[in-house]
Amino acid sequence: MIDALYAMSLSSAAKEIAIGALTARALAEAQLQRIVATDQAIEAWAHLDPQHVRRMAERCDASSDTGPLRGIGVGVKDIICTADLPTEMGCLVYAGHRPRDNAECINRLQHAGGYVFGKTVTTTLAFLDPGKTHNPWNPAHTPGGSSSGSAAAVAAGQIAGALGTQTNGSVIRPASYCGVVGFKPTKDAIPFTGVHLFSETLDQLGTFTRSVADAARLANAIADRGFVSSSVAALPAPPRLAYLGDYPWTAMDCDADDTLEAAATRLRQFGATVIGIEFPSEWRDAQGVHRTIMLYEAGQHLASLQERELERLSPKLNAAIDEGRAVGVADYHAALQWRTKAIAGLTDWLDDFDAILSPAAPTAAPAGLASTGDPSCCTLWSLTGFPALALPVGLSPEGLPIGMQMAAPTGADDRLLTVAAWCESKLPFRGLL
User: Fold this and answer.
1) CB-hemisphere CA count at 13 Å for 198?
2) Which of 390, 224, 192, 387 minimizes the C-alpha distance to 297?
3) What is the pLDDT of residues 383-406, one digit of tens each?
4) What secondary structure letter does DSSP report for 147?
5) pLDDT-above-70 percentage for the chain
6) What is the C-alpha to C-alpha distance for residues 400 and 177, in angstroms, rounded to an integer?
7) At the topology level of CATH, where does 1-433 sit?
8) Which residues are catalytic?
9) pTM for this prediction
10) pLDDT at 2
11) Domain assignments of the chain as residue spans, ordered by start
């Protein structure tokens, strides 16, 4: 029995614990055993203490508190501050760093009855330099980044849910590569306080789970009230969907393109209206605008760190900080103004649709661990702060997951989740479990 517990969904496990049919300790023990069985090839964890996990689970079992996440251990990306566990940010500079306080999202996780299972691997300071984590579908391939360990651990059944962050593609892309549901709510729906800051305009918290319903339950527990409902409502009629097959700043490979086309065709067969649309020409500079904002703000936040620790930062990170520090203030403010106009314009663009479908990544997970892959399919929704979700919909000829990205305007998180759950039911995907 214990061996099968690790495969339970987050929602099912929480409900079983709530009625006394399952203990948090039994679930944790199954997950720890799963980690022993699988993590040598994956290496999803930056810090994991089995005794800490057992203590936290036993504390949940002994508590009379109720909450939507009671007894659920959640993986936490290692740029999110945790007072009980190190927060090293994938960076030698922060080796052994122990924050004084939890991030606000961790306080909310605990208030909902959950606990920090362990810290998952991140790229260095959530930028480009890969960590040690491998893709659980094929260890010779990247899991994506920067939320590498969070996506891989959920995909492998080591935990039922995890937290990550996204500045460009760091939730949606690893979710797609690892075959799980990645959900990035509306910008600032989940408070960023206590999380390593790279770009205040673009940084967003998100979740990794194995179903849309689990994404809603986890996000609801840590988001501000009114953004995300704890359960997904039934869709009263098939949705009206926009379909964007590619982005003007990147090229899709045939396998990803064919998989997305097949998914759109299947949704039409179940009654959805899926209308192909062209990317508006006036917003084609989105990738460059995103880069200007991201690197300018990163340069401001990381300049003092670079001055102290130049030799211990990677060439990629130093180059990004240098580029950001070279951006003029006028160019930065012009980019912010462009972004404001784009949010309004793209909201109008999507006004006739329940959601928009697009690729989550240009390819399945690339071979090798030297790169975390191309984030550019995620750039537009990171720039605008619109809610976005990655839904696994197929496999490449090499047996690697391919995800479909779904997005909706600011504040339409519940609508997006409702439509995503409907699509999930029509596009069955067999994960690793």
Assistant:
1) 27
2) 192
3) 999 999 999 999 999 999 999 999
4) S
5) 99
6) 7
7) Amidase signature (AS) enzymes (3.90.1300)
8) 77, 146, 170
9) 0.98
10) 59
11) 1-433
